[in-house]
Design a protein that fits this description.
This protein is mainly alpha-helical and 291 residues long. It has helices spanning 3-22, 43-52, 81-84, 119-122, 130-143, 180-192, 198-202, 239-245, 252-265, 276-279, and strands at 35-37, 61-63, 66-68, 89-91. A hairpin with a 2-residue loop joins strand 2 (61-63) and strand 3 (66-68).
């Protein structure tokens, strides 16, 4: 996916996030499934499409209350890249949105995808609109490897241009005995180069499962117990840059600026993340669909 189109999609989504936050609404469930695009087809175009591709149904199936025939999903035409550069992308899927006041809530079921959840959700800390900023940063990284679009009428099917890549994802690591949550927290600390601060841990209900009383990381097995912290293995801190470098759509000169906007979002302490309105002025979006 060309970087200019990636930026356009993400900028439009970020405008939706900023608007929601300005109205006291936290999305809490950002993903590519929540990004839609407008439909440029006229009524006559749709009539012609229905004539050439009539509505179809799957074969009959027995259900608990009788026989049913489900409708076949029939996507609208997918826009070309040139057409997509003229489309308006909108943010939807507010089914899990919250209007709670800042600092309220610790429900770990607010976001449905573990690889997009911010750290405060994993450790049971208070959350507010900055949780959307963390997830947005994950989407920036993911969008460089894949993109998901559907038409605004919810008829079109998701399509991916390149294989999806998740920045935070559990993988067995032989040197450490970590469960899935512990491994993701370890990834977060490794990739950001940050540590959780005592102030954040003290107000997080599940922090004791992962950190000791001195706020040192207690994730590691007995083979590392009692050793100085500097010998505890970390994953490479340039993982974000390496992920971007694997994308053929991003030239070398754009790698650092793209990584910089991702790193602005991926801060362990929610207080250190920019607001959506502040992120809209990031140089990475300069010249992209000005309003």
């Amino acid at each position: 996916l060309p970087l200019p189109l990636t930026k356009r999609i993400l900028l439009h989504a970020l405008r939706g996030i900023a608007h929601a936050h300005s109205r006291g609404v936290i999305h809490t469930d950002l993903s590519f499934d929540a990004i839609f695009l407008d439909n440029s087809m006229s009524n006559s175009d749709i009539d012609d499409l229905l004539k050439s591709d009539p509505s179809r149904r799957h074969p009959p199936e027995e259900s608990y209350d009788g026989t049913m025939q489900a409708a076949v999903s029939q996507p609208l035409p997918i826009p070309t890249l040139e057409e997509a550069m003229q489309r308006t992308f909108v943010l939807g899927n507010f089914r899990l949105a919250s209007a709670l006041p800042i600092g309220a809530g610790t429900d770990d079921e607010l976001t449905s995808w573990d690889h997009l959840r911010p750290p405060e959700i994993f450790i049971g800390g208070p959350w507010e609109e900055s949780m959307d900023i963390w997830t947005f940063g994950c989407l920036v990284c993911t969008s460089l490897r894949s993109v998901v679009m559907s038409c605004q009428t919810n008829v079109s099917r998701i399509f991916e241009l390149v294989t999806n890549h998740r920045l935070f994802e559990f993988k067995p690591y032989p040197l450490l005995d970590l469960d899935e949550t512990s491994y993701i927290l370890w990834q977060m600390m490794s990739y950001t180069g940050e540590e959780f601060l005592p102030e954040q841990l003290s107000e997080s209900l599940q922090a004791a499962e992962f950190f000791d009383r001195t706020c040192n990381c207690a994730l590691f097995n007995s083979s590392y117990a009692g050793r100085p912290r500097h010998v505890v293995p970390l994953l490479r801190q340039d993982q974000i840059e390496q992920c971007i470098r694997c994308c053929k759509s991003v030239v070398e000169e754009d790698i650092m600026s793209t990584a910089a906007v991702i790193r602005r979002c991926l801060r362990l302490d929610p207080a250190n993340r920019p607001s959506a309105a502040e992120l809209l002025t990031d140089p990475w979006f300069a010249g992209v669909d000005p309003v």
